[in-house]
Amino acid sequence: MYRAQVFLRQLEPRSARTTAEVLNFALWPFAVLTVLNRVFIKAVNGYITDDFRPVYNASLHFLRHEPIYNANFDSTDPHYLYPPSGTLLISPLAILDPEKSRWAFILLNAAAIILAGYLLLRLFNFTLSSVAAPALLLAMFASETVTNTLVFTNINGCLFLLMVAFFHLVIRRQFLWAGVALGLAIAVKGPLLAPLLMIPLVMGRWEATGKLGGIPMGRPKEGQWQVLVTALGIPVALNLAAWPLIVDYKQFWTHTLPYLSESRDYFNSAIVGNAGYYGVADWLTWTMRIVIGVLVLVSLWLLVRYYRSDEVFFVCTVSGILVTAVLLLSSLGQMYYSMFMFPLLMTVVLRNSLIRNWPAWVAIFGFMTYDKWLSDRWQSAGRTLEYLRTTFGWSLLLIVVFCVLADRYLAAKREGRLQPGKTLDPAWMHLEQQRDIADPEATADFVRAG
C-alpha cells in the first residue's frame, strides 16, 4: 500500500524546481505517448510492406510439415529468409491465428526494445529517474528503425535485446552466457551480429607468448574463448535439431542461401544495392567498398590497441562500427537494422565519445529519422535524397569515427603519449574529469540528472 502511495505521489502535478525535473516532466509524456502511438496505432494499422506474413506462413508450414524454402525470388515482396535454426525458434507463432499472433509479436518486440533501452541505461549508469530515460525512450520510438520494425512487424526488437544482454554479460566476464545471447541472435539472423564475437575475444587480459614480425602476440587469460562455445554451438545445435523436422531442409542451402549472397537493387541501402540501382560501374563500387573497409579496419585497430580498458566505450563503439560496416559493405543493408547502432549513439554521454560533433549527427539523421524526402515538386531530387540518405549516413558515420580516432592518434604521437593500454584521449578530457571529482558541487546538476 505504501509503495502504491509513493508511486501515485510521483504522478501528482507539481511545478518543477530544477532543470532536470523540467526535462523529465516534458519528456516523459512525449515518450510514453509516442510509444503508445507506434505500438497501438501505427503498428496495428500496418503497411503495404509486411515482414510478418512470410514468417507466420513459414511457421505454419513447419508445424504442418510442409515445404518452407520454396519462395519465388523474382518478386519484390518480402521473402522468408530465416535459416532452419530460426524457423525452429519462431515456429510457436503459428499456434495463434494470424491477427492475434501479429499483435502478440508487436507487443513482444515493443517490450524487448523497452527492456533493451533500460539495460542500455544501466550500462551507462543511468537510472529511470534520470533525464536520459525518457530521452532515450522517445529517441528510440520516434526513429525509423523502431517505427518500421513494429509497423512491418519484424523480429529486430528481440535481437536488439539479445545484443544489449550480450554486452552486459561480456563486461561482467560471463562469457558462456554472453555466447548464449549472441548465439540465439545468430540462429535467427545469421551473420548480421556474428562479427560482435570480436569484442570479447579482444577484451580483458592477455598472456604474452612472444612476437611475430615485431607485433606482440598472446592468448586470452580470462576465458574469452568460452563465448565461441555457445555463440557458435547454439546455431549449429538448432540447425541439426531442425534437420529432421523441416521437409525441405536442403532447399535453404541450395535455394535460399545463394539468394542471400546476391545483392539486389531494391530496398537495399548497402553500397552494392544503390550502386546497382543507379548503374554505378563495378570498379567504382569496389573502390568505395575497399576504401570504407580500410577505414573500418584502421578504426578497429586503434580502438583495440588504445581503448580496450575503457570497456563501456569500447564495447558500444566497436559494436556500432561493426554493425554499420556489415550493413554498408555486405550484399544487403536495410535502414531498420540501424537499431543495433543505439549503443554507439548512447556513447554521446561519454566525454571521449567519437560522435560529439555535428557531422556525426548529420550522418545519424540520415539513417535514424522517420522523415521522408520524396517530393511532389522536385520528384527526381527527392527520390535521390530518399534512396541515398541511409547509404550516405552510414558512410559518413564511419568516416567521422575514423577521422576523430586518426586525429587523436596523430595528436598523441606528436605529444609523445602513444602507450599501449592507455587511451588516445587528449589531456583536457582528464583535466575536466579531475576537476569534477575535486569540485562535486560543480557537477551537482549533472548527478541529479543522471
TrEMBL record:
The keyword Transmembrane applies. The chain crosses the membrane at residues 21-41, 103-120, 150-171, 177-204, 225-246, 283-304, 311-329, 387-410. InterPro entries: GT87. Keywords: Cell membrane, Membrane, Transferase, Transmembrane, Transmembrane helix. It is a multi-pass membrane protein. The keyword Cell membrane applies. It holds the Pfam family GT87. It is found in: Cell membrane. Belongs to the glycosyltransferase 87 family. This is DUF2029 domain-containing protein. It comes from Nocardia acididurans. The lineage of its organism: Bacteria, Bacillati, Actinomycetota, Actinomycetes, Mycobacteriales.
